[in-house]
Amino acid sequence: MSSPVMDFQVVVLAGGASKNLVPIVSKEVPKPLLPVANRPVLSYVLELLESNNLKDLIVAVEGKEAALAVGGWISSVYVDRLHVEVAAVPEDVGTAGALRSIVHHLTADDILVVSGDLVCDVPPGAVAAAHRRHDAVVTSLLCSTPTSGVSETGSSGGKDKAKKPKRCNIIGLDPTRQFLLYVATGSEVEKDVRVQKGILRAVGQMEIRADLMDAHLYAFKRSVLQEVLDQKENFQSIKKDLLPYLVRSQLRSELSSNGAAHAEETWNEKLTSQNNQSFFSQHLANATKQSFHELYASGLNGSAPAPASRTHKCCVYIAENSKYCARLNSLQAFNDINRDVIGEASHLSGYSFSVHNNIIDPSAELGLKTTVGPQCMLGEGSQLGDKCSVKRSVIGRHCRIGSNVKIVNSVVMNHATIGDGSSVQGSVICSNVQLQERVILKDCMVGAGYVVTAGNEIKGESLARKEKS
Fold it and tell me: What are the residue boundaries of the Nucleotidyl transferase domain, all occurrences included (predicted)?
């Protein structure tokens, strides 16, 4: 990797007790330590950074207890490999709030901010290089929106997906696809799309995309990042507050101009879904494939060129379609990513697969007539009884699984016990769970230490012990 990347400081926003991951996240297992193919999800980001020679990291974790657990794990695994400072940040302050609480400890000119739940193979160095090349205030990594995989049985939370429509991101790019001109996230898209006329006048053409996902990997100019976070104390989310603000203020001379908000109101044009297509496609007769900032520098519509100081650049780096990119930010995503990392994205797992295209630890024991199919993983010290069948599933360490047990499209974490004659499909079984004999689970989430009594048949439920307060 080229050396300029080295002087980026890296902040990993690793989260903590994420509410939308209950019951698989708990006090014992904070989000960064959730297992993906039997290793903490945070390890995927750390190793991606390490392979790009980005080794000076601050890892921000919500809550002191979670920060201690994550810090302990990092120092045991990465002791001679990375220089990591773990910072406990307040809970429920959002990504921008977490960044705000550490931004004054940062010293480098450019900062790379990456979500700790990102599992991807796009080199962060490429994003950093694009950022430097354009002298941008922010450069955002965009990837193809992952198609949420429904398993062959149609399970893995199928009924949830029918209920809620996919949240959509609308992204506006200049004709050269280097600059980010417009951004709106799911909740706003359902209302109206608003675009500044000034930007449309400037670009002449804007490409509107709804098929790209914000991967939550950003390069920022530190001075601007600090200034905005200090001024805008109400900003909670990088994606919903900070990024749209920087994108909107691209045409203004300074971020802190007092008339800023007023100017913006008058530029907004309300667009309903019927007339937006025609509005976006209005373009200057001579619109060439010039970039937005070239057009702006040469003067809009023949007007005098704008002084260079009047613009700051918001850029994008768009990953190739062949790249894998997903975020573990929902229960569905937890299942999907676990399946992908031992399946189509197995190069990310860090393991070598057997000739049967699976990973069975040499210390695991399999009973007679027990089959472990391709795209499966079986952790160290786990035992399966006779006549078991495991398909497209990850089984953790030191699990005790009886005879005649079927496990399909599921994740079973460490030290779980599954009794004879049980069937587990499209489910997540957390650590130390006990399923007694003949339990049938379909599309369930079972929190750590829970006991399901013999003969129970449960579908589509989330089961967890009451947390002791």
Answer: 10-152
Query: Around 345, how many Cα atoms within 13 Å sit in the side-chain half-sphere?
Result: 22
pLDDT for the residue numbered 165: 44
Given this model, what pLDDT does residue 397 score?
Answer: 98
At residue 200, what are phi and psi to the nearest 5 degrees?
Answer: -65, -40
Q: Where are the domains of the chain?
A: 3-269+287-327, 352-463
Average pLDDT, the chain: 84
What is the mean pLDDT of the segment spanning 329-347? 95
Other Cβ atoms closer than 10 A to 436 = 17
* 70: enclosing H helix or E strand: helix 64-77
pLDDT confidence of residue 298: 60
Phi first, then psi: give them for residue 232, nearest 5 degrees. Answer: -105, 75
Please, what CATH class does the domain formed by 352-463 belong to?
mainly beta
For the residues 355-371, what does the mean pLDDT come to?
A: 97
Helix, strand or coil, per DSSP, at residue 268: strand
Which helix (H) or strand (E) segment is 158 a member of?
helix 158-163
Structural contact between residues 398 and 414, judged by C-beta atoms closer than 8 angstroms = yes
Least confident of 159-163, 253-257, 391-395: 159-163
Q: Comparing 102-116, 132-146, 181-195, which segment has the lowest mean pLDDT?
A: 181-195
Provide the sign of the torsion angle of the four alpha carbons 134, 138, 139, 145, taken in this order: negative
Whole-model pTM?
0.86
CA angle 445–451–452, rounded 5-degree value: 70
**pLDDT at res. 118:** 97
| Rg of the chain over all Cα atoms, to the nearest angstrom | 24
| Strand 138-144 relative to strand 314-318, pairing | parallel
Backbone angles phi, psi at 288, to 5 degrees: -105, 180
Secondary structure element (H or E) that encloses residue 128, with its range? helix 124-134
**Residue 131, token pair as written in the block:** 């950022």
Short-list 207, 209, 213, CA closest to 147: 213
* Other CB atoms within 10 A of residue 322 CB: 7
CATH architecture of 3-269+287-327: Alpha-Beta Complex (3.90)
CB of 255 closer than 8 Å to CB of 228: yes
- End-to-end Cα separation, the chain, in angstroms: 48
Amino acid, res. 320: E
